[in-house]
Amino acid sequence: MELQALTYLVVGLSFALYIGIAIWSRAKNTSEFYVAGKHIHPIANGMATAADWMSAASFISMAGLIAFMGYEGGMYLMGWTGGYVLLAMLLAPYLRKFGKYTVPEFIGDRYYSQLARVVAVVCLIFISFTYVAGQMRGVGIVFSRFLEVPLDMGLFIGMGVVFIYAVLGGMKGITYTQVAQYCVLIFAYTVPAVFIALQTTGHAVPQIALGSEMLDGSGSLLGKLDKTLVDLGFGSYTEPFNDKTMIDVFAITLALMVGTAGLPHVIVRFFTVPKVRDARSSAGWALVFIAILYTTAPAVGALARMNMIHTVNGADGTGIYYKESPPWFQTWENAGLIAWHDHNQDGKIQYAAGDAFQGKPDFDGEKRGSHGERLVKNPGEGKVAKNAPFANEIYVDRDIMVLANPEIAGLPNWVIALIAAGGIAAALSTAAGLLLVISVSVSHDLLKSTFAPQITEKSELLSGRIAAAVSVCIAGYLGLHPPAFVAQVVAFAFGLAASSLFPVILMGIFSKRMNKWGAIAGMFTGLVFTSGYIIYFKGVFLEPFAANTPENWLFGISPEGIGSVGMVLNFTVASIVSSLTAPPPENIQNLVEDIRIPKKLVREE
Q1: Does residue 406 sit within a domain?
Q2: Residue 359: how many CB atoms within 10 A of its CB?
């Protein structure tokens, strides 16, 4: 069967499965819509949590980052996995014991303030829409390549599917859908990795293949990749701090870690299980399910980079003629995610260190150069790195590495179709969780709990579904106009969560002295500082005022890592304001004591 037909079949079957589950598990009341009735089994909840958390950034972009960054790409692995452990051990059981529906509800009750609740909702919406922009971009990338439809059409299809199972099923429908999506995405991620590991090293386990000898006798995989990249003018793959400083790597890792612990769509998952001990159990199961993909990602990144270099540059390192370029290059070129410009007019594709273009290429699908290369508007001359044998002529979007890997390696069409379904599952699972969190915050925290407490449960459920529908539309727009590649956009969301919600949640559990004014001031400070820094350095203002370069960053910390500074500001401002204002009421202090130290005679919910 042809690849396109096979892809339509596999993706279509997966969509039918998701929609069928949504119809079967349609929410009938607000409890099912918000927290799935608190009846989800810990193992199922762990699988759903893993799918909810392992977004398009994990499936599509993380291995691509590792492929291009090498050692430094490990900060995404350490930050995200370490953050999940932090969430599971430090926050989740206590929040489940509190027993409410949402993070803003916890903040509103703990800090005895409707204003604190509203500020928390604003932070949550800001975080969630930033995060969902990356997911929708991932959906667009997969659709535009594998289903061969325009980017906007792919987004509309993805929006329609999310609309059905998020609006109909609520948290109940999303939970069971995410269980299915986890099975799809983990199978799609590991199968190509096993195939390529066998091709390259003879080992079926990718984690073992990463440190194994190549079948061609040229040495170890990492050793050969390291030497090849250095010969082409790149930094070492296995040595740290080639492209980023130590402080920036530390700041990004910390922001990702504490940001994970502050993500509302992950935290709400621990409200869906029957008991506190089930929250702990589901956290453990989720970590197991997450580890399967995260321990595979380094091998996928290394194998993808090695295969791409050899496929483009050829065995002798001099490049191959465009007319002989492999099919995978041309198909991704048509998708607008890879391009080349023949600087030296020799008719060859040549990949080395340096920029192929000034900025991201602007494609013109109808015109080609004298040697067949894709023409770009205002192409640059390319920067040749020191010791590079020739100028780089290729622009490669980092988000294509995992998706293109099976094609680069020449795997069967069914494997390529499978990875398309996996990429879509990863993006849609997280997008649905984020959109539900937004809709619940609007219907429950803003309407029912704040501005319209008199509305009935039926009206509240309807308002939640309307909010979800509006959120889907906004998410689609953000997917069409994302600020960066998938993992970078997600890193911004984690930074916002780290600087706004994490400190007040942590202090709300462990500090009886923290009051409402400290929490409000801390959230506001962290959110404004971090979002302002990201917006400023992502080019909202004209150069040179927003030059996104290390010499202009605060303490040398990039926008991806600035959330760690915002978190420190949040803690500092919150502590100072709390110390200068009245302490919380005695009943709130008793509440904090009860959350942290469960009484033996109190039956678990």
Answers
A1: no
A2: 10
